[in-house]
Amino acid sequence: MKISQEHGILIKNLYLLKQCGARRLLHELPDKGWKLESIDSLLKSICKTGTIIRQPRSGRPRSARSSDRRTLCSVKRTNQKGTDQLVRFRVKLPFSVHVYTR
User: Fold this and answer.
1) Mean pLDDT of the chain
2) How far apart, in whole angstroms, are the C-alpha atoms of residue 16 and residue 5?
3) Cα-to-chain-centroid distance, residue 4
4) Is residue 38 within 8 Å of 4, Cβ to Cβ?
5) What is the three-state SS of the chain?
6) Please, what sign has the CA dihedral across residues 46, 50, 53, 58?
7) Nearest partner of 44 among 88, 12, 70, 73, judged by Cα
8) What integer is the mean pLDDT of 80-96?
């Protein structure tokens, strides 16, 4: 179960003021429905960073989110013999592109 922001503040205050561990928090507040692992990981992050707020860039990497931003581009290039050559390549764009045809 995900721990909300308000519950995270409560856990942080109980940990810092009363030195409550994860098991003691579960014993004192059984009606919250928390899991031992979720409280334990929250306490580890409080010890490491001093806050319950996630650090910037701590989520999934952007490259893992979607691969639909690749598009096929073509360029007309003239070679040394004077003939045109169509060169195609794939480009990964930082934004989505909508192509409208008439």
Assistant:
1) 77
2) 16
3) 17
4) no
5) CCCCHHHHHHHHHHHHHHCCCHHHHHHHCHHHCCCHHHHHHHHHHHHHHCCCCCCCCCCCCHHHCCCCCEEEEEEEEECCCCCEEEEEEEEECCCCCCCCCC
6) negative
7) 12
8) 64
**pLDDT band with cut points at 50, 70 and 90 for residue 85:** low
Q: Which segment of 3-17, 59-73, 76-90 scores lowest on mean pLDDT?
A: 59-73
Token output for 39: 């409280």
Instruction: Compute the distance between CA of residue 41 and CA of residue 45 in angstroms, rounded to an integer.
Output: 6
Mean pLDDT, residues 73-80 taken together: 64
